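Posting for a labmate who doesn't have an account.
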Amino acid sequence: MINPIKVNKDDLALACFYRWERERPDTVFMTQPMGGGAVRDITWGQAGKEARSMASWIQAQGWPAGSKIAILGKNSAHWMLADLAIWMAGHVSVPIYPTFNGDALRYILEHSESKACFVGKLDEVGALKDGVPAGVPLIALPLAPTIQGAASWDKLIASNKPMAGSTQRAGEELATIIYTSGTTGNPKGVMQNFTAMAWALSSGAKRVVFNNEERMLSYLPLAHVAERILVEQGALRFGAHVFFAESLDTFVADINRARPTIFFSVPRLWVKFQQGVFHKMPPAKLKLLMSIPLVGRLVRRKLLKGLGLDQCRLAVGGAAPMPADLLRWYRDLGLDMIEGYGMTENCAISHATMPGTFRPGTVGQPYPGVESRIDAVTGEIQMRCPAVMMGYFKDPEQTAATITPDGWLRTGDKGVVEKDGCLRITGRVKDIFKTSKGKYVAPAPIEDLLVTHPDIEACAVTGANFAQPLGIVMLSPDAVTRVAAPEARAEMMTSLAQHLKSVNERLEAHEQLDCLAVIATNWTPENGLVTPTFKVKRPKIEDAYASQYEGWLKQRKPVVWAGV
């Protein structure tokens, strides 16, 4: 029986914010690095004053109620304040990934019909020159680069009185349009209302207890639904303290400043953390030290403190499958990590493993209030709950293809349910390909095995219409530096050949990889080979490398150096 979860008006985002603004005006809400080691603390009261002043300016523009207003930029305190101001003013926020190029930016701004765009921290402003349609005003948030013609957040709030009262939004009102990161084709605009976002958080809180002493570090894109729900909505609901990261170069200092009690990261970054540990101490030596009772306890404590996670009571992985060996490694380190499964279309709420339990290879059981089923014909995972989207913006055909008439969301993922009710994801319905032998191959489980090698940061299994599949592996930056020396490259190739042999021994005959192609070029959102949350874009990988497959295979080596 599905556990009913009720959402009342006090659970909605703005109502929660007004509560903390009223009850804890002098308590720090957000801590923002300002550069050069300086930080700025923003209290709930200060946040309210700034958001209300910006809301007054937005209302003065005379835009129709429910207009779309975009937010482009890296995570920052003022990204969240802009979101609040848009909602207070009666409008709809449209978050945009800071790594989108000019074409993608223009598509989203035009498709969403955005009236304006807040611009925050960016690595470069090239996309703005080509991607902002004429007539769309820009508002530069603090820490934004110099943008010609943009209005200043600080000047606007200084010249506008804070909006009085506590404007409420109805739960069924459209709150945001979250554009998917687009593993295939143009991004789709997922429409979510205030109730859906609140319900998702309420369901998650049935499984994990939150309180107003939580500390969270926000560094994954706030344009991504998981960061938006867990960090932004979680902080608003429970009064948590949000810290922001300044850059990758300062990440160690940022996470040690925050010492998060709850920390969410995608698999590729959990792998990076592990590789950083292995760079300082070889895996075999670390395993030996951790096996010694007293020494092992000290080593674990030191490693967690070095990672900034010694106060972390809940570590979460999601957005892509977490390799089972990686989960085991973190558990052995003493980090209670759960794996969550969800998507933009359901506010990131579908399944998760339970804290204190260990079910590697699965994403656990459905969250409270979530119904789940496997399609008998296609094996597709389908789910239903109040957090399912209203639909895709201006795309009724795609909406009808994704949501059944009785409300079931077609996830596009394939899976099986274990005897204990835990869900095991076996791949994407559309990712499965057929070899020339007529055998079907699901790449995701094989990729989970490949990335357990400490020098592999990302990979893709491909090979439709070839006799056997093949793997393309991207080396970590540290490994790329090491293989510059010929001797080190030879050692790397030998290590990867041994890894390929061990992986193939765990696969069915038709799944075994013919070879590994080693890539030294970094796959980034900027070059379009991965999404902003580091999911591999398979069509882009095919476009980039398919012409080389035959050449790699003709070498008849277990590992070939592609290097591009």
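Reply:
Got it, the structure tokens are right above this. The first strand starts at residue 28 and ends at 35.
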